[in-house]
Amino acid sequence: MFDIKVTPIAESKKPNEGSFLQTPFWCSFKQRHGWSYSRFLVEAELNSEYQKMLEDEGCSRASAADNIYKKTFELAILNRSFAKGIFNICYIPLAPALFFKCTDQKEIDAALEGDENSVFKEELVTPETQTIEFAHFIKELSLQLKKELPANTILIRYDPDITFYNTEDRDLFNYGLRTVAFADKIKLKKSKVDIQPPDSTLVDLTCSEDEMLSRMHAKWRYNIRLSEKKGVIVKKYLGNDMNLSEKLDKFYELTKETNARDGNARHALSYYKDLIISSIKEIEEGKDSPLVSLYIAEHEGEEIASIMTLFTKTESIYLYGASSNKKRNLMPNHLLQWTAMKDAKAYGSSYYDMYGMPPEGKDEKHPMHGLYMFKANFGGQNIHRTGSWDYPLKAVYGLYKMAEVTRAWWHKKVIKKLKGR
Q1: Which pLDDT belongs to residue 66?
Q2: Do residues 172 and 131 lie in contact, with contact meaning Cβ atoms separated by under 8 Å?
Q3: If you compute the radius of gyration of the chain from its CA atoms, what whole number of angstroms results?
Q4: How far apart are the C-alpha atoms of 138 and 95, rounded to whole Å?
Q5: Which of the residues 73, 342, 372, 411 has an alpha carbon 20 to 30 A from that of 59?
Q6: 3-class state of residue 295 by DSSP
């Protein structure tokens, strides 16, 4: 169905755009923390036989005038060895995207609702209509990448860059992908363990600050004003600040307090330190790299909450957060997020990603209802991605999958219950 060529490349043409997970900065950072990293230029073209089939069926997406048959993009790949180098896994974060561009969501809604004023008359192109092409695209991309990967690689894991605005459409797409994989005998498996959070909420930064505030829940606007009125001050630190070490120590103390309260995992202090310092170092060297910042909320000289963010020209990410058990009534977390959003807007990012929330958390009985409400009430658009998909390369994949699921169950179910969470 596709003719695909992959070529190793040394540098990216857009190092500070798109998903931060695909940037050279982030991949080089992960390379210093247990992964190896490579980058490729992917040139993909729909073969002539399938092109003709689409044209014969009258598909509007088969418009040669728009070069729709060809797709060229960069692809960052992370590799990690296990069991003292016996086997290797390949991970591709937030890529690839669908081969065909989807119809604008507003046009889809108008067409499906039967809007008599809608002028949309062509076929609707949605993720769900592309499951056949996407399954084959992943298969043929994987076979080409296999030639460039370590010989002991047992799987390629993808987190596709496909966004849905409700869980029903996402589930329908995943079901369709499973069905195509089974029917066409494609070795594509839905992973039971997702690497990146598949559900999040994105706050639009392209409007004015007044509009951003107006989209928030009224209580959240009140909490921001309350925090300021009560004397909470937010300070921002970069990797070249003289007192960074002291502030990172405080951030790490707060992460310990937060983890004891919520049961979440944390990285080593050196991980956070390397992340923020390497960002400003690359920028000072003249590189077009993402900006990593540490924000700390203080009240009467006491540091009570903190977040770490990453800004690119496309998106801004709320990476990590921590807060004290003290003075939570001062709502420092609301002011921290609002401060970071304003800075992200000034930086030029299009949206602010709260980065991870359970879609079922809207239910008041859900254990993460509080987290859901905190993130959702900033007025963003809830989004849902497919989660991780695997393309196995060796038979031992089945054993690895079993071990991975068992490990996840042990940590999420057993360990948390033993700790009373």
Answers
A1: 54
A2: no
A3: 23
A4: 10
A5: 73
A6: strand
CA–CA separation, 99 and 240 (whole Å): 42
Distance CA 213, CA 38 (A): 41
Residue from 386, 387, 356, 394 nearest 374 by CA: 356
- Give residues with Cβ within 8 angstroms of 179, minimum separation 6: 131
* 10-residue stretch averages of pLDDT, the chain, 421 residues long: 95 95 98 96 91 74 61 96 90 96 79 60 80 96 97 97 96 97 97 94 98 98 98 98 97 93 86 98 98 98 97 97 95 98 98 94 89 96 97 94 82 49 45
Query: Can you list the positions of beta strands (E) in 159-257?
Result: 163-164, 189-190, 199-204, 233-237
Provide the edge-to-edge strand list for the sheet that holds 70-82: 2-8, 36-46, 70-82, 87-92, 153-158, 389-392, 189-190
How far is it, in rounded angstroms, from Cα 97 to Cα 72? Answer: 11
The pLDDT assigned to 102 comes to 87
Does the pTM exceed 0.90?
yes
Kindly state the tokens that stand for 350.
Answer: 């299009």
Residue 39: enclosing H or E segment and its boundaries?
strand 36-46
Relative to beta strand 87-92, strand 153-158 is parallel
Q: What is the pLDDT of residue 417?
A: 47
253 Cβ neighbours under 8 A, 6+ residues apart: none
**Cα–Cα dist 294/197, whole Å:** 22
Residue 90 three-state SS:
strand
Which three-class secondary structure state does DSSP give residue 287? Answer: coil
H or E segment to which residue 136 belongs = helix 131-146
- The position carrying tokens 């994105």 is 202
What dihedral do alpha carbons 404, 408, 409, 412 form, nearest 10°? 180
